[in-house]
Amino acid sequence: MDLKELETYCRKCQKCNLGRTRNNAVFGQGNENADIMLVGEGPGYNEDIQGVPFVGKAGQLLDKMLLAVELSRNEIYITNIVKCRPPNNRNPLEDESRICLDYLRYQVKLIQPKIIVCLGAVSARNLIRPNLSITRERGNWTRKGNIDFIPTLHPAYLLRNPSAKKDSWADLKSIREHLDALKK
Hints:
Blueprint: H1 3-11, H2 18-21, E1 29-30, E2 36-40, H3 45-50, H4 57-68, E3 76-80, H5 94-111, E4 115-119, H6 121-127, H7 134-137, E5 142-144, E6 147-152, H8 155-160, H9 165-183
Parallel strand pairs: 2-3, 2-4, 4-6
Antiparallel strand pairs: 1-3, 5-6
């Protein structure tokens, strides 16, 4: 199965209740050979309408952040833990995340990123460790298999807490340095 076939299958998914309330499954977007994969928690309103990840205000901030470290959406792959919008933008429930993680595992297997950036606590707790504290552990690297993981603050959090942008800037510089070192 390739990424397109997986996306087609995902867009028809009804394995949890989120499939019944969505407008669009938001599978992912970007370079299918990316060294960096960004993983958020789940689609918001704008993403659900457009079927594209991170296109709302948080996505616009993310684009600016990436540009600041000379990365673009053409170079990365971006997706979420769950592919359908949770009602009222709530965090995905454990069973919703667990069901949807199979899609993410296949995406990772097909794309084979070297780095996975966990955007926010939901992503980090699903991919790194269930009891991870994003505010205490953001910016710390963890290696699993052949992939280096780093949790950082979600762009939506940064919109609500602008003073935390300095922490995310440090994480972005670390990601850039790590990527450059991997390419040497």
